[in-house]
Amino acid sequence: MTLFLRPTIYRNKVNFHKFHQYSTKSNTLKKLRIQKFIITGSTLFATGSIFYFFINNDDTYKSFASFSLIPVKSTISSDKFTATPIHQIIPQSKTTSIFRLKLSAPLQEPFPVSSCVHVKDPSLQIMREYTPISPIVKNDELLYIDLLVKRYENGQVSRYIHGLSVGDLMEIRGPVITFQYRENMYKALGMICGGTGITPMYQIIKHILNTPSDKTKISLIYANQSIDEILLRKELDILSKKHPDQFKVYYTIDNAPSSSSWNQGIGYITSEMIKQNMPPPSSSSLSNIDDKNSNKDDDNSILILVCGPDGLMKSISGRRARDMSQGRLRGLLKKLGYNENQVFKF
Ligand SMILES: Cc1cc2nc3c(=O)[nH]c(=O)nc-3n(C[C@H](O)[C@H](O)[C@H](O)COP(=O)(O)OP(=O)(O)OC[C@H]3O[C@@H](n4cnc5c(N)ncnc54)[C@H](O)[C@@H]3O)c2cc1C
């Protein structure tokens, strides 16, 4: 900002100097003082108006911000919807694509973990939550937001989103925190999800594995209809290979595939799959985790996160209550001895 103001101030200084040089009489001096006052006032007012115009006009703001004269303001807000252009659409399966949105200026930091954004269908004025899968970690590109969106045949907002093309605007608002994660909050996190329920899990997984001081162990059971429908599989496999002692993933698909090379689960998630892959309700059997980093209360040293379609929620943990509170714990997790403090439903 100082750079921006300097030429104007400098010009005025020269002019005042000139006035002083040529005036001798006191009434002339008085006049000059008034002129000086008026000119200084007008200069400040004009500069202020230009500055106000720039920060309140998104298009001009962009080029203004590129000179780094003022701190870059957040390009999306939690209070109001911002029309954000779709930069790219990357198909992931028959029904699901990544919608990459381009912001007018980079975010100052990655999204909090875990958080979602609201997307609005402007014609129907309805909105739904979507969980950005980037930017989540420091090295993510802060100029883009990636939303992994599944299209439901009769779904209002997901169908609207899938009807958009590159260059169209999507109205988004956020971020909105859904589950407040803190480093080493638990000894172990279990995750059970289906379909696009992977998105909040992926946010947390990526965040933990990119934080070397976070020693939390993560195990994931991920259910899908078929091998082709497994979302983010390549990314998950790379992460589990890179962090074999910290992150394990187990896939299950509804029906047996024709290829015999499939050695993961077949069918809906069962008690057996949970017992074999999730941290047990009593964490005393968890070893080699630095105790000083974790919650001392044994019951609270593990947490199972659950996210997915209605049927999966009902079978694994019970659904959330109508008022969106966690509701009673039911389903397989209840039968296996987990308590309400050990389960979080997205
Ligand atoms: C915190 C949070 C994060 C989320 N993150 C993601 C994400 O990252 N990606 C993602 O894809 N989704 C995510 N979701 C789900 C998303 O918000 C929407 O619920 C989803 O896209 C469906 O919305 P819709 O408007 O398209 O469907 P809706 O209109 O709400 O319909 C939902 C379902 O009901 C069915 N349905 C609609 N009308 C009828 C009817 N009359 N009779 C019978 N069935 C009907 C539809 O076919 C569909 O299966 C998230 C949800 C939450 C709460």
TrEMBL record:
Topology term for the membrane: Single-pass membrane protein
What are the protein's UniProt keywords?
Answer: FAD, Flavoprotein, Membrane, NAD, Oxidoreductase, Transmembrane, Transmembrane helix
Q: What is its main location?
A: mitochondrion
- EC number(s) of the enzyme? 1.6.2.2
- List the transmembrane segments: 37-55
Residues annotated as binding FAD are: 128, 130, 148, 150, 157-158, 199
Q: What class of enzyme is it?
A: oxidoreductase
| A molecular function GO annotation | cytochrome-b5 reductase activity, acting on NADH
Q: In its keyword annotation, does this UniProt entry include Flavoprotein?
A: yes
Give the top-rank taxon of the lineage listed in the UniProt record for this protein.
Answer: Eukaryota
Q: Where in the cell is it found?
A: Mitochondrion outer membrane
One GO CC annotation: mitochondrial outer membrane
The entry's family comment says:
Belongs to the flavoprotein pyridine nucleotide cytochrome reductase family.
Protein name as annotated: cytochrome-b5 reductase
